[in-house]
Structure formats: C-alpha cells, structure tokens
Amino acid sequence: MATTAAASTARVEQEQQLMNYIHAGSYREAIVLALTLHHPARLLSLFQGVVDRSPPEEGSLCGLRPVDEVLGHLSDEQLLELLRRLRDWNTNARTAVVAQRILNVIVRSYPADRLAGLRGRGWKEVVDGLKAYTERHYKRMVELMDESYLVEYTLREMEEVGFVDEEDGLGEMAMVP
Fold first, then answer.
1. How many whole angstroms from its chain centre is CA 87?
2. In this structure, are residues 90 and 103 in contact, taking their beta carbons and an 8 Å threshold?
3. Does residue 86 contact residue 103 with C-beta atoms inside 8 Å?
4. 90, 132, 173, 176: which has the highest count of C-beta atoms within 10 A?
5. CA distance to 57, 97, 128, 129, 136, per residue, from 133 (Å)
C-alpha cells in the first residue's frame, strides 16, 4: 500500500513538474518528460503552441529554434515514441499540420541511417501509418489547389464578361432577383 501511494505521489509530482516546464518554456525538459510520462495531449498542446507561433523565429523549422534543437537530439527510444505520436496525430486533419511540421524537423535533423536504425521496434508500422495519411493529406491539398485555380479562373472570366465588378464584387448578377 505504501509503495502504491509513493508511486502515485511521484507521478503527481512529475505531472506538476511537466506543467511547470511547459509554463516556463523549458522545452527540452517538457518534451522529454511528456514523452516519458506518455502524455500525448500535453505534448501536442506544446507543439501546437510552437507551430502556431506568429511570427515564427527566423531560421526555425517548426517555429522555435530551441524546439528544433531538442527534436534534433532525442534518444532512439524518445524518437520512436515521438514518431508514434506523430503517426497518431497525422490521422486527424485537425492535428495533421502539427504532425507534419514536427515530422519535417525530424526528417531534416537525423540522417537516414539513424532513422533506419529504429527498425525492429515497431518502425514499419509507424512509417506505414505516416506514409498512408501523409499521402492522403497531400492528395487533399492538391485537390484544394486545383479547386482554387478553378475559382480564380471563373472569377476572372466573370469580370471580363461584366458579371462581377472588380471593386465591390457586385455586378449585374447581384441585381437579378
């Protein structure tokens, strides 16, 4: 009973320490502790704040150079755990932007042989998951770009014909009941 209580107390203290690191901007400690404690939501929240940072730091891949530095110096176990989280976040369109941005940092920070060295520890499942959803997101982005070109073309043609006024967007079409 005493060991269970001590373990519970230690876990609560670690979680409080994680919150303190996040609040203080101690990214190395926060990222490593969130990975150790298996807190994907807190880790995602931290990365979301970094990616959404406006303006991003000059020369940073994800938004903050200290986070780029931390991501570039993870142990194999931490790296594989982070890649698993990225795979999970990449399956959701809301969190895919963060996953893709952090994945970009990892791919640029580690040589291919280091990443390939993670094989045998669930690496194939992680890569297959990342690949499938990344291809899906890429296809969706290409389709959106194609649609935006079609809308742009249509508006330009409507301006030439006189259906749309360039200044206020209203023209003869707006007067038709």
1. 10
2. yes
3. yes
4. 90
5. 28, 12, 9, 6, 5
Neighbouring C-beta atoms of residue 63, cutoff 10 Å: 20
Question: Is 18 within 8 Å of 33 (Cβ atoms)?
Answer: yes
What is d(CA 82, CA 73) in angstroms, rounded to the nearest whole number? 12
Q: Give, as one character, the DSSP assignment of residue 55.
A: S
Q: Tell me how far apart the alpha carbons of residues 103 and 156 are, in angstroms, rounded to a whole number.
A: 38
CA distance 137 to 112: 23
Tens-binned pLDDT, residue by residue, of the chain (177 aa): 778 888 888 888 998 999 999 889 899 899 999 999 999 999 999 999 999 988 989 999 999 999 999 999 999 999 999 999 999 999 999 999 999 999 999 999 999 999 888 877 788 889 899 999 999 988 988 999 999 998 999 888 888 887 766 565 555 554 444
- The pTM score is 0.77
